[in-house]
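Homework-ish question, so no full write-ups if that breaks the rules, but can someone show me the predicted structure for this set?
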Amino acid sequence: MLELIVISTLNGVLFGMLLFLLSSGLTVIFSMMGVLNFAHASFYMLGAFFGYQLTRWIGFWPALILAPLLVGAVGMAVERYGLRQTHKHGHVAELLLTFGLAFAIEQVVQMIWGKLPMDYRVPELLDFPAFTIFSTNYPAYKMFMLLVSVVIFIALLVVLKRTRVGLIVQAALTHPSMVAHLGHNVGRVFMLVFGVGTALAAVAGVIAGPALVTQSDMAALLGPILFVVIVVGGLGSLPGAFFASLLIGLLQTFAVSMNGSLASVFGPLDPSTGASLLTDVWNVTIAQIAPILPYVLLVLVLIVRPMGLMGTRET
Amino acid sequence: MRKLMLAALALPVLALPVFGTPASAADTVKIGYIDPLSGGGASVGEGGLKTFQYLADQINAEGGILGQKVEIVPLDNKTNPQESLIQAQKAVDAGIHYITQGNGSAVAAALSDFVAKHNSRNPGKEMLYFNYAAVDPILTNEKCNYWHFRWDANSDIKMEALTNYMKGVPTIKKVYLINQDYSFGQSVRTEARKMLAAKRPDVQIVGDELHPLLKITDFAPYIAKIKASGADSVVTGNWGQDIALLLKAAADAGLKVNWYTYYAGGAGGPTAIKQTGLDHQVFQINEGIPNAGYKPSVEFEKTFRAKVHMSLWYPRAVNEMRMFKAAAEKAKSLDPVKVAAALEGLEFDVLDGGKGVMRKEDHQFLQPIYISSFGSLTDKEPFDEEGTGWGWKEVAKVDTAQATLPTTCKMKRP
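A: Not a homework solution, just the prediction itself:
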C-alpha cells in the first residue's frame, strides 16, 4: 500500500509539473489579453516536433534550448501579425483566430511529419534508472523533467515578483491603460509575454516528447485539461496554476490506482435485477472514471468558487 | 501576357484530375480500406494499409482477379464508428463493393450494420465487408451478418487457446487483467475470468483494469498498480499504442512479470519488450509467426520485409486477399452476391501451413493458431523484429479442430 502511495505521488507530481509548464504560459496570456489561447497545446506539440527534428540534426541538448526559442518566435509572430490585428474586433475574433490556428498547426504538422508517432528517444545520457524504490525503477529522465519544471517555476516566480519586468507585466495584467499612460509599450509587453508563454509550452513539448508520445494528435489529447488547470487555479495566478496542476496530476494518478466502486462499498447488486444502466453505474470503478475527474472538478469550482482557488477576479 | 502564361501553367494542373485516372476504372476491383490513418490507431492502420497494398500488387503482378486489377482505396476512420460510417458511405458513392477493416470492434459492429442495411435497401448494388482483425465474438454470434466475413480468430477462440496454454504453466499464481474499455476489451476480461476460473481455479485474479481506448500517453500509474498487486502474469488484449506504451512504461519501471497478450507484436511493442529484458516472457497469440519454419511463409516473409520494410503483422490479411481471389474465380464473377456465396464453406491452405475453412454458419474463418514468445533467437529462427535482434519463437500450435468454438449465430440469408 505504502509502495503504491509513494509511486503514485511521484507519478502524480511529475504529471502535475508537466501540466504546470503548459498552463503557466496560458494563464498569463489569458489574464493579459482576455483571450483563451486555444492553440496553446498546439505550441506544445510544435515544441515536441521541433525538438524531435533538431535532436536528429544537432542532438537533444541544443534542441532543448533552440526549439523553445523557435516556437517562441512563432508565437510572437502570431501575436504581432495575428492577434494584434484582430484585437480591434473584440475578443471573439481573437478567440476564433486561436481556434483556427490550432487546426492549422495540426494540419501543418501532419503534412510535414505525417500522422505516425515519431521515434523520439530519451537522450542516452539520461537513459538509466535514477533510483529504485520498493523494487520499482524510477527513470532518470523523469527526474530530469521534474527538475526542469521546478527550475522554471522558480525562475518565473522570481521574474514576476522580484524584477522590474515582472512589475510591468503584473501592472499590465490589471491596469493595461494605466501602464500605457506611464509610457510603457504595452503592445510589446503583450508580444513578449505571448512569446514567453508559447516558449514555455514548447519546453514542455521538448521534454515530454520522448517520455510520452510525439504524434500529431498530442495537442488534442492534452488541450482540454489545460483549461481546467487555469480555471481551477484562478486566472492570472501563477501559484494558483501551480497548485491546480499538482492537484489535478495527483487526482488523476491516485484515481487510477483506486479500485473502489459502489458495489465494493454497498455490496453487489441482486443478480435478479439483470444488466441495466444501474449495474453499470454500480460496478464502475474509480479508476475507470479517472479521466473525467478533472472536468468534474472544473464544474464544481465554477459553481462553488468561480474565481478559482487563488484567483482574484471572476472567471 | 502574364495572365496567359499563368493560364498555360495552370492548364495541365487543372486537366489532371479531369482526364487523369478514371480511364481504367472499368477494369479494376476496388477495396475500400477503412481504418485509422490518424490518431492513436494510426501506427497499426498505416501498417495494415501497406500490407494490403503489397498484397494487391502481388495479385496484380499475377494477372489480377479474373483479369481485373485490384486497387486499395485508403479511407481514414480515426478509429471512430461515426467517422467509419461516413467513410463507408464515401466508398458506396465511389462505386466500391468491397470494404475491409480491422481495428476496433465498435467500428466493426457499426460497419457490419451499415453493410446489412445498405444491401437490403439497394438490391443489385450489394457490398461485402471483410473483417481482418476485429475480434469481438458478438460479430459472429448474436450480431452475425451474412455480408460480413472474419479472417481473424475471434477473441473467445484466442482466449480458449491462451488459457489452455496457461493451464500447463504451474508458476502462474496471480493474474492481472488490463484491457481497453470498449466491447472487445470487456469481452477479453469476461472470458479470461470465466476460462481461468474453470481451468485453473487456484489462480487468483489480483486486478481487473479497464482504461480508455487509445487515449493514454503514460501508463506509469497503471504499472505502479500492477506492481503493487503482486501479480506474476498480466493478460491483455490491448492493441496499437495501448500495448506499445504499456510495455514501454513497464520497461521504464522495471516491472518483471509474464505477459500474455493478443497483440504485443504491433508497432513499438518489440522495441519495448527488448528494453525490459523480458527474454521469452512476453507471449502472443495469432494465426502465424515468421519463425514457424514453414517454407512458403518464410519465403513470403522474406520478400515482404525486403519490399515493405516491416514484418508481416497480419498473415490473416494474406489469407483474406487470396481467398477473395479464390472465391471470385470459383464463382467466375466479381459480383459480391456470388463471391459471398462462393466464400461460404470455402476451404483454403493458409499462409502458415494447414487447412482453414470459412465456417458457413457464422462466417468465422477457422484456422490453426500459434502461441509464441518473444526473445533471443537461435539459428532456427531467422527473423527478428524492429531491429532488436529478438524475435518470435513458437511455443505451441493449436490445430484448426482445437481452435474452434461453437457459434450461436442464426444467419439470415438473402
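Now go work out the reasoning yourself. Hint: The beta strands of chain A are 129-133, 136-139.
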